[in-house]
Specification:
The complex is a heterotrimer of chains A (about 120), B (about 130) and C (about 400). In chain A, about 10% of the residues lie in helices and about 30% in strands. By secondary structure, chain A is mainly beta. Chain A has a domain of about 70 residues: Roll (SH3 type barrels), CATH 2.30.30. Chain B contains four helices and eight strands; from the N terminus they run H-E-H-E-E-E-E-H-E-E-E-H. Chain B is about 20% helix and about 25% strand. Chain C is mostly helical and about 400 residues long. Chain C has a single domain, classed as Amino acid/polyamine transporter I (Up-down Bundle), CATH 1.20.1740.10. The mean pLDDT of chain C is about 90. Classes of the chains: A mainly beta (about 120), B alpha+beta (about 130), C mainly alpha (about 400). Chains in contact: A-B, A-C, B-C. Strand 2 of chain A pairs antiparallel with strand 1 of chain B, so a sheet runs across the interface.
C-alpha cells in the first residue's frame, strides 16, 4: 500500500461513525543497523475531524513560536487525535475502518489525556 | 501506556511532517529527488490488517509518484520508481542514501537528460570559471 | 573593495527587487504622478524584504535548505505546486521583461533597434549562467548595477526643493484623499519590493556561496546593506521624476523619458553612467530571474541544482533555464511590450507573497532546522506584522488592478 492511499482517507469507527480524516501517519524508528537507518514501524494514525490542512509542527506542540500563529493553529486543530494502529481492522477504497473504539489521545502533547477512556 | 503513542520513546516519525516531500541526497550530498510517496509493507488495501506484523516502510517512491498526490488517482505498481528503505543512512532535515545517485535505477531521468541533451552542448563538463 | 564584494549577493538580489526594468519604469511613473507621495511604501517594502530575506538567508545558512525546498515541505505538493506555478509564471514574465529591458538599454546606447539585441541579450544571460562562477557573476553584475547611483547624484545636481519633496513624502494626502490608482501603485510597489524571486535567489545564493552558521554576520550584512541601497536607488529615481517630470505633467512611457532628468542634471557623462547602470541592472535582474526559475523548479522536484556544480551534474536545472530563455525570446518576438508584461506580473507577485513568506516564518522558528538559532521575539514580531500586511496586499492586488485598469 502507498502512504498516499492512507493520507486523507476517511476514518470510520466500529459503529460506523465518521471520525474524520487521516492527516498523518506515525511511525517509530527502530534501532540503527550498521550505518543504516532502522526500520520505520507504523504505530498510529493521526486523525482530524474537520481540518484537512496541516500547519506542520504547530499542532503537535513542538514548534510554538510566533505565539500568535501557534495559538491560532493549536485552536484550529484542537480536536486532532492519535489513533493506535491496533484499533484498525481494514483499509479499503472507502477508507479506514476501525475494529475497536479508539482511546481519545489528543495530538497536541500539551493537552492532557482525558480521564474517561472507552 | 497511551502516552507512548504521543511520544514513542522519543523515536516518533510522522510521515507528512518528517518524511514526505523531504529532500533526498546521495552519499556525495548530491540531490536526488524529493520523497514523493512511501511504500508500506505489511498492509494491503482490502485485506484485514494482521496485527502480529505491524506495517513498515518498504521503499521511497520518486518521480511520477508525486502526481497522484497532487491530482489524485492511483499509479500502477510497474511504473513506480523505488528506492528501498535499506538504502537510507540518515533521516533528519534531509534523507541521505548510501549509494551514488548514478547507481540507482530510479534516477534515470537526470541521466537521460544529461546524456542526450547537456552532453551535446559545449562546456557542460567544465566547472564554472 | 573586498568588503564591497562581500555584500555583492545582497546588492544583486536587491537590484532585481528594486531597480529591474519594471521597477525603473514604475518608480518613474509614480514620481511623475505623485511626486514622493509613495515613498513610505518603498520604505515599508525595504523593511519587509530585509526581515524576510534575512530569515530565508539564516535558514539557508544554518540548515543548508534553500527556500523553495522548504515551501514544498511545509505546504505539501498541492499548495506547493500552486506557489510554483505562480512563481514560475512571474519569473518567466519578469525574465522576458528584463531581456527586453536589456535590448531597450542597448538601443539607447547604440541606436540600433531592440529587436536585433534580444537574441544577443538572451545569449549573454545564458552563457554567464552556463560558464561563469557565481561569485564573479554577482560581483560584476552587482557592482555595475550600482552605476544607477547616478540617479541619486542627479537628484542633488538638480537642486530640488528638499522641503517640498519631504512634504510630499511625509504628508502624501495633504492635497486631498488618494484615488484608487494611488493604492494600486502602492500595492504594486510593495509587491515589487518583496517579490518572491528575491528570497528564492538570495537563499539559493547563500547555498551557492556555501554559507554556514559561521557566516551569519556576512549574511546579515548583505541584507542590511543591499536592500536599503536598492531602496535608495528606487527613491532616487522617483525623486528625479518628481523634480523634472511631475511639473511638466509627463506620463512616463519609455526608457528615454526615464533618463531625461539625469541627462538634464549631468549631461552626457551622467547619461553614459545611467545607460551602463540600466544595462547592468536589467542584466543582473535577468540573471536573477532566470536562475530563480531554475532554482524553484529544481528545489520543488528535488533535482540537483546550483552553479557550483558542473552543468553535467545538474542537467534538468540547466535545461529548464534554457527553455525559459527560449520562451522569453519567443514572447518578445511577438512584439509584446516587455514593461507592460512586468507590470502585470508584479501584481500577481503580490498574490503569491503569503504562500512564499509563511513557510519561511514557520521554518525559521523550527528548532529541528535552526537549532538554537530560531527566531527571537523581535524578529517574530516584525515578521508577523509584515505577514499581515502581505495578506492585505495579496487580497487587494487583483481587485485594484481591475478597478483602476492598471493605474490609468
Amino acid at each position: 500500500m502507498l502512504l498516499s492511499e492512507l493520507l486523507d482517507a476517511p476514518v470510520h469507527g466500529p459503529d460506523g461513525r465518521d471520525l474524520g480524516r487521516v492527516v498523518d501517519v506515525r511511525f517509530r524508528r527502530d534501532d540503527r543497523t550498521d550505518a543504516r537507518e532502522g526500520r520505520l514501524i507504523l504505530i498510529a494514525l493521526i486523525i482530524s475531524p474537520h481540518s484537512r490542512m496541516s500547519f506542520y509542527g504547530y499542532e503537535r506542540g513542538r514548534v510554538n513560536r510566533p505565539a500568535v500563529i501557534a495559538k491560532a493553529i493549536a485552536w484550529i486543530h484542537r480536536k486532532s487525535r492519535v489513533v493506535p494502529w491496533e484499533c484498525v481492522q481494514i483499509v479499503t477504497d472507502q477508507g479506514v475502518f476501525l475494529g475497536v473504539e479508539p482511546p481519545v489521545i489528543p495530538l497536541d502533547v500539551r493537552r492532557p489525556l482525558p480521564a474517561q477512556q472507552p | 501506556m497511551l502516552e507512548w503513542y504521543r511520544d514513542p520513546d522519543g523515536r516518533g516519525v510522522d510521515a507528512r511532517l518528517h518524511l514526505l516531500d523531504r529532500q533526498m541526497l546521495d552519499r556525495d550530498d548530491v540531490p536526488i529527488s524529493t520523497v514523493d510517496d512511501v511504500e508500506l509493507d505489511g498492509v494491503v488495501l482490502g485485506e484485514t490488517v494482521d496485527h502480529r506484523h505491524p506495517p513498515v516502510v518498504g521503499a521511497i517512491l520518486i518521480g511520477a509518484a508525486v502526481l497522484p498526490r497532487i491530482f489524485g488517482g492511483r499509479m500502477p505498481r510497474s511504473r513506480w520508481d523505488r528506492i528501498e528503505w535499506g538504502h537510507v543512512t540518515h533521516l533528519d532535515t534531509v534523507i541521505t542514501l548510501a549509494d551514488r545517485g548514478d547507481d540507482l535505477d530510479a534516477t534515470w531521468l537526470e541521466r537521460w537528460i544529461r546524456d542526450r541533451v547537456i552532453a551535446h552542448i559545449p562546456g557542460g563538463s567544465h566547472a564554472p570559471e | 573593495m573586498k568588503k564591497l564584494f562581500a555584500v555583492a549577493l545582497g546588492i544583486l538580489t536587491a537590484i532585481g527587487g528594486f531597480v529591474d526594468i519594471g521597477d525603473l519604469v514604475t518608480n518613474a511613473v509614480v514620481g511623475a504622478r505623485y511626486g514622493m507621495g509613495l515613498a513610505w511604501v518603498v520604505v515599508a517594502g525595504i523593511i519587509g524584504i530585509c526581515v524576510y530575506a534575512d530569515m530565508a538567508g539564516r535558514v539557508a545558512a544554518v540548515s543548508g535548505r534553500a527556500t523553495f525546498e522548504i515551501i514544498r515541505e511545509r505546504l505539501g505538493p498541492r499548495t506547493g505546486l500552486a506557489n510554483l506555478s505562480a512563481s514560475f509564471l512571474i519569473n518567466l514574465l519578469t525574465l522576458t521583461a528584463e531581456i527586453g529591458g536589456m535590448a531597450l538599454a542597448l538601443q539607447l546606447a547604440s541606436g540600433v533597434a531592440p529587436g536585433m539585441w534580444i537574441p544577443v541579450a538572451a545569449f549573454a544571460v545564458w552563457i554567464v549562467i552556463w560558464r561563469t562562477k557565481f561569485s564573479i557573476m554577482e560581483n560584476v553584475a552587482g557592482l555595475l548595477g550600482l552605476c544607477l547611483i547616478v540617479f541619486a547624484v542627479a537628484l542633488f545636481l538638480l537642486k530640488p526643493d528638499w522641503g517640498a519633496l519631504g512634504d510630499q513624502a511625509i504628508r502624501p494626502w495633504s492635497a486631498g484623499s488618494p484615488d484608487l490608482s494611488y493604492w494600486y501603485y502602492a500595492v504594486a510597489l510593495f509587491g515589487a519590493a518583496m517579490t518572491p524571486y528575491e528570497v528564492f535567489f538570495f537563499s539559493s545564493g547563500a547555498v551557492e556561496e556555501g554559507w554556514t552558521e559561521k557566516d551569519l554576520g556576512t549574511e546579515r550584512l548583505n541584507v542590511f546593506v543591499g536592500f536599503p541601497l536598492g531602496g535608495l536607488l528606487s527613491l532616487s529615481i522617483a525623486g528625479c521624476a518628481a523634480v523634472v517630470l511631475l511639473p511638466l505633467g509627463v506620463d512616463v512611457t519609455s526608457l528615454s523619458q526615464l533618463v531625461l532628468p539625469v541627462a538634464e542634471a549631468g549631461g552626457r557623462l551622467a547619461l553614459a553612467f545611467v545607460i551602463v547602470g540600466i544595462l547592468a541592472a536589467t542584466f543582473g535582474a535577468a540573471l536573477e530571474t532566470t536562475l530563480s526559475s531554475g532554482y524553484t523548479l529544481a528545489q520543488f522536484f528535488g533535482w540537483s541544482w546550483g552553479k557550483f556544480r558542473r552543468p553535467r551534474q545538474a542537467a534538468r536545472f540547466h535545461i529548464s533555464m534554457m527553455i525559459c530563455l527560449l520562451v522569453g525570446i519567443g514572447v518578445l518576438a511577438t512584439g509584446a511590450d516587455p514593461v507592460m508584461v512586468t507590470e502585470v506580473s508584479v501584481v500577481f507577485s503580490a498574490v503569491a507573497l503569503p504562500l512564499t513568506y509563511y513557510p519561511i516564518l514557520v521554518v525559521a522558528n523550527d528548532p529541528e532546522y535552526m537549532g538554537d538559532k530560531v527566531n527571537g521575539r523581535v524578529r517574530n514580531g516584525f515578521a508577523v506584522v509584515f505577514l499581515a500586511v502581505i495578506l492585505v496586499a495579496a487580497i487587494a492586488a487583483i481587485p485594484l488592478m481591475i478597478m483602476t485598469g492598471m493605474g490609468s
